[in-house]
């Protein structure tokens, strides 16, 4: 093949290509998603009873549980964006474990407390239904936004990345619920929250993972089939 023909072939191959826009660093993209969470919080906060919130958060276990949920959202979001980048260590997936342990542990200790926290009431069935609806309703748009942001990175472990995104969305929703949750910790209330959070994580891992490239075809590729 002559040099001129070779150059012409190369020109034909690259002529229609568009420049690829480089992704921002994972930490910046995680910060952008967390900024969206803060924007949602700013919209919701005027509707919250802040005086009641201050009274409730004076109880140590309720305060630590709220802080643990918020830190879990931050850590899980960062872990999701880190694991979405090929070549990054999967050990980033362990990042949310410590704050999640504080969240779960403080919530469990609240159930063992022998007195009603100031500013709270026991949750009835209607209140628990409202908590479930809030957690799902807030987790859904946050999950959709997160998956859309993660999709551009083409993660090699999409189901894991999507599940971490689900944890981030669920923890963020639980944090935003705190100002609107004037109820003390009970075993039933904790169970409702746990089932909802695990459901959000599982659905994100399954459906979000498929959107990120984790469907059956990807599984066969991973096995070399």
Could you write a compact summary of the structure shown?
The protein is mainly alpha-helical and 225 residues long. It contains 9 helices and no strands.
What does this structure look like?
- The structure is a single chain.
- The protein is mostly helical and 225 residues long.
- It has one domain.
- α2 crosses α4 and α4 runs antiparallel to α5.
- The radius of gyration is 22 Å and the shape is elongated.
Portion of residues in beta strands equals under 5%
Structural class: mainly alpha
Unreliable sequence segments: 215-225
Number of domains: 1
Global geometry = elongated
Largest sheet: none
Radius of gyration: 22 Å
Q: Termini distance?
A: 37 Å
Keywords, please?
225 residues; mainly alpha; 70% helix; elongated; disordered C terminus
Topology:
Elements: H1 3-14, H2 26-44, H3 50-56, H4 60-83, H5 97-112, H6 125-151, H7 158-177, H8 187-211, H9 216-223
Helix pairs in contact: 2-4, 2-6, 4-5, 4-7, 6-7, 6-8, 7-8
């Amino acid at each position: 093949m002559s040099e001129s023909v070779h150059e012409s072939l190369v020109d034909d191959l690259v002529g229609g290509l568009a420049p690829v826009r480089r992704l921002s660093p994972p930490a910046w993209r995680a910060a952008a998603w967390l900024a969206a969470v803060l924007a949602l919080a700013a919209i919701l906060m005027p509707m919250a009873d802040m005086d009641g919130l201050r009274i409730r958060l004076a109880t140590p276990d309720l305060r630590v549980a709220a802080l643990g949920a918020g830190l879990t959202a931050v850590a899980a979001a960062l872990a999701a964006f880190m694991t979405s980048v090929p070549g990054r260590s999967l050990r980033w997936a362990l990042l949310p474990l410590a704050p999640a342990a504080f969240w779960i542990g403080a919530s469990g200790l609240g159930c063992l407390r022998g007195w009603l926290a100031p500013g709270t009431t026991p949750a009835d069935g209607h209140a628990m239904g409202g908590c479930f609806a809030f957690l799902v309703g807030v987790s859904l748009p946050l999950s959709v936004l997160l998956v859309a942001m993660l999709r551009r990175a083409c993660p090699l472990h999409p189901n894991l990345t999507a599940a971490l995104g689900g944890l981030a969305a669920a923890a963020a929703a639980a944090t935003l619920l705190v100002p609107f949750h004037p109820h003390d910790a009970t075993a039933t209330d904790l169970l409702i929250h746990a089932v909802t959070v695990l459901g959000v994580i599982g659905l994100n891992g399954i459906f979000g993972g498929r959107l990120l490239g984790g469907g059956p075809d990807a599984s066969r590729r991973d096995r070399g089939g």
